[in-house]
Amino acid sequence: MAVRPVIKVQGQWVVSRKAREPQLLRVAGIAQLLGVSEQAVRNALCRGEEGKTIPPSIKLGKRRVWLRRDAVRWLNEIGRSVTERA
Hints:
- The chain is an alpha+beta fold.
- It has one domain (23-85): Multidrug-efflux Transporter Regulator, Chain: A, Domain 2 (Orthogonal Bundle).
- The chain contains three helices and five strands.
- It has a three-stranded antiparallel β-sheet.
């Protein structure tokens, strides 16, 4: 199932809350949500850049997953901190 891209509404990043959309995102889902490649996400994980260039993830068994709501919240925080610096 394709992940819907986030859109900016009144200065906030939002994702629709359709019941069928996955609430746990794997690498492909977070990459699509952020608009980057899967390899870029994996590279950021290997470099320890969680919270800087990608949202913090959760270890689920051997996999890394992201909660959709946390990823959107992180995007909003990053957006505010970028605007506050400018």
